[in-house]
Design brief:
mainly beta, 4-stranded mixed sheet, 6 helices, 16 strands, 13% helix
Length: 381
């Protein structure tokens, strides 16, 4: 099968028994793969070999991939050992050709967007939001979820179909409740779209040069990828850089020496005091449509007189204020040298050596359009 925009999804629907699951919607998230099922409680992912060396497919530039093969039967363990008991994914990257008269230069730029795969038109009518919450809470605990009175519910019902605030029926009033002045809320707030957006832009640039002459073949590439997340106030920013250099030299007709050098760097910048998954999960907790994000005086709504809970655990305030930013940087340098011996046609035996220095500094439905340009590759006569 062909190389798509993300290698992890290549086998989805193309390889029998291959299961691809994406557990996170943040821009830096990568899917988990399962080829031979989940044989234990701890699960298990397939062994990934990139040009014969174990690696992480999320750190491979898709434009550098020549072919992808999947081994999912029992022979994978016999050939590749115990690590291959959950299957093997073999990724081969491109190499230059010495049959061309001129180097091949290829530049590709793609731009597009990602969007949620589920509906986001959540309940935004204050009356329905309160009514449904109270019914469910009373059914399970015997008391209402909110402290809205019958008079309050009548006011919410009057405003039920107001998509925008009508001056004759203001959504926020100032009244005395429990012996003190309080803000009284009769809103129709779309909490999701007040905090998140449905269209998230992405783009990528790829540049490669390949060629060769006589016994020498080379391939050099560089790539940059940028994605933005769903947070509306200030979206998460994910940037990734890849550099790959490959050189093959035929010492004899039977003996070839190869060197592969790669560099990977990624940066993920996101708002909030905790992880993006925590912020996204709590941003809908206790945020009824009858409550606004902010009061008319500009202060944030955190506690109300209508229940005993903190709205979204303060996540909407963290996003709105953008007071704290977090950044995760990852980089990796790899250098692989190998000697390939072909005693007779159609056979080969390789002896690789590898040096890898990975570092993690701090723990923690797509649409696209593109433009591609390349120089013609003219075979030698």
């Amino acid at each position: 099968f062909g190389v798509g925009s993300f290698i992890g999804f290549l086998g989805q629907g193309n390889v029998a028994g291959m299961f691809v699951q994406n557990d996170s919607g943040n821009p830096s998230g990568v899917p988990s793969l399962s080829i031979r099922g989940v044989p234990s409680l701890n699960g298990g992912e397939p062994l990934v070999l990139i040009d014969g060396v174990e690696g992480d497919m999320s750190r491979v530039n898709p434009a550098d991939v020549e072919s992808v093969s999947v081994i999912k039967d029992a022979s994978s363990s016999a050939v590749y050992g115990a690590k291959a008991s959950f299957g093997v994914i073999l990724i081969s990257t491109k190499i230059g050709s010495s049959s061309a008269l001129h180097p091949a230069v290829r530049y590709t730029v793609r731009a597009g967007f990602s969007s949620p795969t589920t509906r986001t038109d959540f309940e935004s009518r204050g009356y329905d939001s309160v009514l449904i919450s109270d019914l469910f809470m009373k059914e399970t605990t015997g008391r209402n979820y909110t402290f809205y009175t019958s008079t309050d519910m009548a006011r919410l019902l009057e405003r039920r179909n107001d998509r925008t605030e009508d001056p004759a029926r203001p959504w926020i009033l100032r009244e005395t409740r429990n012996g003190r002045d309080n803000w009284i809320y009769y809103c129709n707030t779309d909490w999701y779209h007040s905090m998140y957006r449905d269209i998230n832009p992405l783009m990528s640039h790829n540049l490669s040069i390949s060629g060769g002459s006589g016994p020498v073949r080379y391939y050099l590439s560089g790539a940059y990828e940028h994605k933005e997340g769903t947070f509306r106030a200030r979206a998460e920013q994910y940037d990734k850089f890849n550099v790959l250099s490959k050189l093959d030299f035929d010492l004899t007709s039977e003996l070839t020496i190869s060197n592969r050098m790669g560099f990977y760097y990624s940066s993920y910048d996101y708002p909030g005091n905790r992880s993006p998954d925590y912020t996204f999960g709590f941003s809908s907790v206790h945020g009824l449509a009858s409550f606004p994000l902010q009061n008319p005086d500009g202060t944030w709504v955190y506690r109300t007189v209508f229940n005993d809970f903190n709205l979204t655990n303060g996540c909407h305030i963290e996003l709105g204020e953008d007071a704290k930013r977090n950044k995760i940087d990852n980089y990796q340098f790899t250098d692989t040298a190998s000697l390939l011996y072909k005693p007779f046609k159609g056979s080969s035996r390789a002896g690789p050596s590898k040096r890898m220095r990975p570092t993690r500094l701090r723990p923690y439905a797509n649409a696209s359009a593109g433009l591609e340009w390349s120089t013609p590759c003219i075979p030698a006569r």
